[in-house]
């Protein structure tokens, strides 16, 4: 079971919660086998709450937002002549904490985080609590001199790379991208363009200054997500949101017709 797309399958974006979780686990496993003995890859998580109604509340893993209402209780009896205010009831559905995972590469002997690998999600790319926390984390990693690898395989939302988007040439703003910041070169960012029509390449993962980079192979990760998630059942006749643009849209339509998916 293989995707008709040679690289990132844009139809996987509709199922990003599942795909993101798989990517992080598979990438962590792939890196674990490549790291020097003193380094370990670990999956970490951050938690926040978002609501479709526009309100938000920051939480920690052991905190829940619980709905309270007036219905079902006893009604107080007012004294004669006392006017009682009548409430307007506002229904607030419970907001579930959203958990996002990412990868930390740890120096066991030094007891510190060496590198963080992020696969960006919609919560990072849309205004709200998730994006605020992500930007704050970027700043903390920068100050802490932790290498940062940001991999974007999701087209929706706005880019939040550590590298200013204005510094990225328009020709390199492909549907999928990656950005790497190395603590040893704080004034430089590495930008990688991933065109839709090509297989995803391997990206260099920086470690400690004395270590050589290790390669994270992205295409096998996406292939594994597609296969293990049984995404051969995807409906390739439905429109994409956001839609593909220009030559990519024409190319994808021809590709899917040749594969008998349309």
Structure description:
By secondary structure, the protein is of the alpha+beta class. The protein contains 5 helices and 9 strands; from the N terminus they run H-E-E-E-E-H-H-E-E-E-E-E-H-H. It has helices spanning 16-32, 122-125, 129-143, 218-228, 246-258; strands spanning 39-50, 56-57, 97-107, 112-119, 147-152, 176-181, 189-194, 202-205, 214-217. The chain has a 7-stranded mixed beta sheet with strand order 2-1-3-4-5-6-7, with helices on both faces. A hairpin with a 5-residue loop joins strand 1 and strand 2. The chain starts with 15 loop residues before the first helix and ends with a helix. The relative contact order is 0.20. The model is unreliable at 50-75 (pLDDT under 50).
Terminal-residue CA separation: 17 Å
Mean model confidence by pLDDT:
84
Main beta sheet = 7 strands, mixed
Helix content: 10-25%
Number of strands: 9
DSSP strand content: 15-25%
Helical region count? 5
The ordered string of helix (H) and strand (E) elements is HEEEEHHEEEEEHH
- Briefly note the structural class of the backbone: alpha+beta
CA-atom Rg in angstroms: 23 Å
Q: What is the molecular shape?
A: globular
The side-by-side strand order for the widest beta sheet comes to: 2-1-3-4-5-6-7
Question: Can you describe this structure in just a few lines?
Answer:
The protein is of the alpha+beta class and 262 residues long.
